[in-house]
């Protein structure tokens, strides 16, 4: 069977196919990618024993970044409003000196942003990078990636919720209209080959060359932060230089899309398994595997010869790190992952799933008070509810992990626009389409020119600026 591709649209439809006429295409599996060398991120990995002994960012050149404004520390809307010299008139009602209203951020799916909204976002991210504040966020995540409370335990969702909120604040200091978009990769995952999504083109997150280096798009010129590999060594060993120092990070962003183990995007089945389960163990999971009464991976048995595992919120997020970064790419290793702006789109989606589960299964009171019991066999003490959420402070004191459960995040700071749906025309964006080729209708992201469109209906419009045809044009 021949593989069908998105052929560039010149002026009009090819002769012989009327508008709206379904053209079923042949289903052929996608191509594999190339692999590279380097460290790989494994969801739940705890790294070296013990937490960073100090909030000084060991293992990175302190001259490579600038601290953001203390405004990003705000824990209520009034603080954020007044930090921008605005006039506070109540929650979600602030007038800036320019006369512009400051409101809650509305987080939308990345591909549903208007062209102007996307351009403003890219501009703000690039300004944050040029000011070296972006690399401050990279350095923070790097420093706490192993042996702390941000991975491998129940505080994963809480720490990253605060982390991306502060990043969003930093962007809004540049442009108050900005909100972090989320990347709903289920609409990429349904494609014959998710690597052919327009996500990976110059208008969005950029394309890569044959070696995996970013060579187009808004972030192609970035020089990434160089860090010292601390996955196997403690900060004390690195600081005292008693171990070999291996540098991570490249001069440019590197991706190895879909090239290695665990290289799958989050699919509907992963979300359904979490959303239909009221157990907090899938939301506040552990990094331990095979330890009795710990929750990270539970074998569900064999279905059709395939062993299925029940994945926690942290586990399914780890799959996406692997899909984008693979072996050797920035997203494939927790220490370098923030160097790729895709990181914040992924974690916007993780936070959305976290909030969806909270709204579905918990009362307002439960959302702020239900959490895992301390268990040193399953996770280190940095994941306990009353532990400081290092390095995050407000008014000179550390906030606690329990603060990450607060309803204030979505009451005062941001809310999510609904995920793309076929109930809205064109799934609410010219960059999306409604896939009618399967039993259940589902929004999909459009396919780049030359991409695999096998098995999709041409009448659904899956190809961006093109038509689904054989390579010879038939």
Automatic annotation (TrEMBL):
<feature type="compositionally biased region" description="Gly residues">
    <location>
        <begin position="29"/>
        <end position="48"/>
    </location>
</feature>
<feature type="domain" description="Tyrosinase copper-binding">
    <location>
        <begin position="340"/>
        <end position="351"/>
    </location>
</feature>
<keyword id="KW-0186">Copper</keyword>
<dbReference type="InterPro" id="IPR050316">
    <property type="entry name" value="Tyrosinase/Hemocyanin"/>
</dbReference>
<dbReference type="Pfam" id="PF00264">
    <property type="entry name" value="Tyrosinase"/>
</dbReference>
<feature type="region of interest" description="Disordered">
    <location>
        <begin position="18"/>
        <end position="48"/>
    </location>
</feature>
<dbReference type="GO" id="GO:0016491">
    <property type="term" value="F:oxidoreductase activity"/>
</dbReference>
<keyword id="KW-0479">Metal-binding</keyword>
<dbReference type="GO" id="GO:0046872">
    <property type="term" value="F:metal ion binding"/>
</dbReference>
<protein>
    <submittedName>
        <fullName>Tyrosinase copper-binding domain-containing protein</fullName>
    </submittedName>
</protein>
<dbReference type="InterPro" id="IPR008922">
    <property type="entry name" value="Di-copper_centre_dom_sf"/>
</dbReference>
<dbReference type="InterPro" id="IPR002227">
    <property type="entry name" value="Tyrosinase_Cu-bd"/>
</dbReference>
């Amino acid at each position: 069977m021949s593989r069908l591709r998105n052929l560039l649209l010149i002026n009009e439809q090819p002769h012989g196919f009327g508008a709206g006429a379904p053209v079923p295409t042949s289903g052929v599996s996608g191509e594999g990618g190339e692999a590279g060398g380097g460290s790989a991120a494994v969801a739940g990995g705890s790294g070296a024993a013990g937490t960073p002994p100090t909030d000084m960012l060991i293992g990175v050149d302190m001259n490579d970044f600038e601290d953001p404004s203390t405004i990003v520390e705000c824990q209520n809307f009034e603080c954020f409003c007044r930090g921008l010299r605005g006039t506070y008139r109540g929650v979600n009602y602030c007038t800036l000196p320019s006369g512009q209203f400051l409101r809650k951020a509305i987080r939308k799916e990345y591909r549903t942003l208007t062209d102007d909204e996307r351009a403003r976002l890219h501009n703000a991210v690039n300004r944050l990078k040029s000011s070296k504040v972006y690399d401050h966020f990279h350095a923070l995540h790097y420093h706490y990636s192993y042996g702390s409370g941000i991975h491998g335990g129940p505080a994963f969702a809480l720490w990253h919720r605060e982390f991306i909120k502060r990043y969003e604040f930093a962007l809004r200091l540049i442009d108050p209209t900005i909100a972090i978009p989320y990347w709903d990769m289920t609409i990429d995952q349904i494609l014959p080959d998710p690597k052919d999504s327009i996500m990976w083109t110059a208008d969005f997150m950029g394309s890569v060359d044959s070696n995996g280096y970013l060579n187009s798009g808004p972030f192609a010129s970035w020089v990434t932060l160089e860090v010292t590999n601390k996955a196997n060594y403690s900060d004390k060993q690195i600081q005292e230089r008693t171990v070999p120092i291996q540098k991570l990070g490249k001069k440019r962003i590197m991706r190895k899309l879909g090239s290695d183990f665990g290289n799958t995007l989050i699919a509907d089945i992963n979300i359904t398994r979490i959303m239909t389960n009221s157990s907090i163990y899938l939301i506040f999971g552990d990094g331990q595997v095979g330890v009795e009464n710990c929750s990270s991976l539970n074998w569900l048995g064999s279905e059709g010869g395939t062993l299925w595992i029940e994945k926690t919120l942290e586990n399914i997020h780890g799959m996406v790190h692997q899909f984008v970064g693979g072996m050797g790419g920035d997203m494939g290793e927790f220490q370098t992952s923030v160097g790729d702006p895709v990181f914040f789109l992924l974690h916007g989606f993780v936070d959305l799933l976290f909030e969806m589960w909270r709204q579905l299964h918990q009362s307002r009171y439960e959302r702020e008070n239900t959490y895992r019991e301390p268990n040193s066999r399953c996770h280190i003490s940095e994941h306990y509810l009353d532990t400081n959420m290092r390095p995050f402070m407000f008014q000179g004191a550390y906030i606690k992990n329990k603060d990450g459960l607060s309803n204030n995040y979505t009451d005062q700071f941001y809310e999510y626009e609904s995920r793309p749906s076929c109930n809205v025309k064109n799934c609410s964006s010219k960059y999306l389409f409604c896939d009618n080729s399967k039993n259940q209708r589902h929004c999909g992201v459009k396919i780049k020119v030359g991409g695999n469109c096998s098995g999709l209906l041409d009448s659904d419009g899956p190809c961006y600026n093109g038509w689904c045809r054989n390579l010879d044009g038939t």
